[in-house]
């Protein structure tokens, strides 16, 4: 089982943090690269779309899961 790592990011001028297991973080990095945007930009997009009662870490996990279901995180040789 993966350990959760806490990371910080600046979104719309304020610092916030989120905690993700390495596989979720790695897929988030891959998705941002495929989209040609920064990781902070992708986190900001997810943050803007999440319901206010949902925490950012959960919203990021659900986003990665949704993208995986759509096949957006497929890697050669996987």
UniProtKB/TrEMBL annotation:
Establish whether keyword Transmembrane helix is in the entry. Answer: no
Which InterPro entries does the entry link to?
RHH_dom, RHH_sf
Give the residue range of the signal peptide. none
UniProt-listed Pfam families: RHH_4
Molecular function terms, GO-annotated? DNA binding
Residues in domain Ribbon-helix-helix? 5-67
What are the UniProt keywords, alphabetically?
DNA-binding
What is the protein named? Answer: Putative DNA-binding ribbon-helix-helix protein
């Amino acid at each position: 089982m993966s350990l959760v790592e806490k990371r910080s990011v600046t979104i719309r001028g304020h610092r916030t943090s989120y905690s993700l297991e390495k596989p979720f973080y790695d897929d988030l990095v891959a998705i941002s690269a495929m989209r040609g945007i920064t990781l902070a930009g992708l986190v900001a997009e997810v943050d803007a779309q999440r319901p206010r009662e949902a925490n950012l870490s959960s919203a990021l996990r659900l986003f990665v899961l949704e993208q995986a279901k759509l096949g957006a995180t497929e890697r050669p040789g996987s």
